[in-house]
Every structure is written in C-alpha cells, then in structure tokens.
Amino acid sequence: MTKTLPPFNGYNEGHPWYYRLGGPIATPKQIKAEVEAETYRGYLAGDIDAAAEKSEPQRSDALRALRERVLEDLHRDLKRYRQCAKELRRFRRAGEQDDRPLTCNIYLAMSLKSSHLTNGFANLKAIDDALSVQGDLFGF
After folding, report:
1. Residue 13 per-residue DSSP state
2. How far apart are CA 3 and CA 42, in angstroms?
3. Is residue 138 part of a domain?
C-alpha cells in the first residue's frame, strides 16, 4: 500500500508553502492513493452524475467520453507534474532560494499540478464507479 503524505508544517501538497518550506514531493502513486482513501469526487462530479442518470446506451457512451477526456487531461498533467518536480529537485539541490512572490515560481506550479492530479484521479475514480454500476445494453 502506498503511504500518503501527511501535512508538512501545517500545509498539504496542494499549497505552495508546502514546497517552499521543504515538504517532500509526492509521487503520482501517493496522490492517487490519497484520493482513493478520501470521498472527494472531483470537479466533474455534476457532469458524471448527469451522465450516469441517462438511459443506456447513452449513459455508457457519455461516461466513456468523459473518461477519455479525463485520461487525456491526466496524461498532460502527469507530464507537467514530473517536469515541475524535476525542476524543484534541481532547485533544491542547487540550494537556491526564490525570493520572488509565490505567484510566479516553482512552488506555485507544484501546488497547482498536485491539485490537478488530485482532481484527475478523483474524476477518474467517480467515472469508474459509475461505469461499474450497470453494464452496457446487451453486454457490449
């Protein structure tokens, strides 16, 4: 089981100060495990519920379309998260301190991408839960 990251100095990985104060970089697996342990359903919960209310085969088609969109977004977010994590590691190894405002640096980028991954994994979980409730018409 992947261990989720506890708050660091009172901040979670979705906050820029978490990284500014030296919090560890969460792996995508840790973020996913944290989402799976919680009840958060993601920002698309309303769209997912609306699609799940449709009758078959529109229901499954709509849920699969949402799933495809979420997977594409998640793939892009994972790629950017890894780039940001690499930059933060380099930044920390060099012992650099960024005195610019938090609105324009790597700490904010990491917190935003962490939040995007959280939403992506939560949306995917909600969609998969909805798809598992009822199969397609005629077993397709």
Report:
1. T
2. 21
3. no
What's the pLDDT score for residue 13? Answer: 79
pLDDT tens for each residue of 2-53: 345 666 777 877 888 888 888 899 899 999 999 999 999 999 999 999 999 9
CA distance 82 to 100: 22
Query: Is 49 within the bounds of a domain?
Result: yes
pTM: 0.83
Number of domain units in the chain: 1
| Residue tagged 């992947």 (tokens) | 2
Q: Report the 3 state secondary structure along 100-131.
A: CCHHHCHHHHHHHHHHHHHHHHHHHHHHHHHH
Pair 34, 121: CB distance under 8 Å: no
Q: Is residue 97 part of a domain?
A: yes
Could you tell me if 117 and 73 are in contact, meaning their C-beta atoms sit under 8 angstroms apart?
no
Residue given tokens 């980028």 in the structure block: 109
111 located within any domain: yes
Tens digits of per-residue pLDDT, 62-83?
999 999 999 999 999 999 999 9
Domain that holds residue 42: 20-132
